[in-house]
Amino acid sequence: MDAQEQAKGEALVMACLVEPLERRGFGRPTALKVDQFEAMKRELCQKLAYMSADNLMALEEEAAGLAGGKDHDRFPIGQKILECALKYQQPEDSASPLIRAIFAHSLGREAIAEGWAPELLAGVRNMKKRAWPRNFQVDQIKKAAEDPMRKMREIERRLSQGLDVSSGDAAWRDRRLAVIRKCEEIGNMGGDGAAEKGTA
């Protein structure tokens, strides 16, 4: 998502989610100061800019039922809205700051270089609560990658020796290479400033 698409998406979130909730009369959550509330709304717009208008309108309906305060007249807390949003529309991997950081980090670079990046991407994407993978999770991801990596090496060996490869295996290889390229692109979006995280 480029800067123009991001700005357009943020405006859509404001029009389809934030402003309709405010028109319902929901006030600032009592736990937040005015500047914190404004920052929360800006962050919602930034993080949900990937969503379609239809999904944002559906989310607004559900979010109205999450109103806080004893009289249920306070704007829902941003984290609750973000959690609900995932039911309606998942962000593209490239829209996730966590996934960008992982693939910009030495962990992601290692996964790309060694060929288990597709499993790392799937592993992070499928976590119930997205977080930096711990050592145990990385070990499980690598284990899951063993058979696909072995298959990839065999296909590459056959190709390098001029041997026949089935159309199914050739298509599987192409799909896997496309995912690895996608992981490289995501890592490049993360930039050089990705924090070195511990995986303990």
SS-based class: mainly alpha
- From the spread of the alpha carbons, the general shape counts as elongated
How many β-strand runs?
0
Using only C-alpha atoms, the radius of gyration works out to 21 Å
Q: What proportion of the residues is helical, as a percent range?
A: 55-70%
Average per-residue pLDDT, rounded, comes to 89
Main sheet characteristics: none
- Order of SSEs, N→C? HHHHHHHHH
Number of separate domains: 2
Span between termini: 32 Å
Percent of residues in β-strands: under 5%
Helical segment tally? 9
Low-confidence stretches: none
Description:
The chain is mostly helical and 200 residues long. It contains nine helices and no strands. It starts with a helix and ends in a 10-residue tail after the last helix. The model has no long low-confidence stretch (mean pLDDT 89).
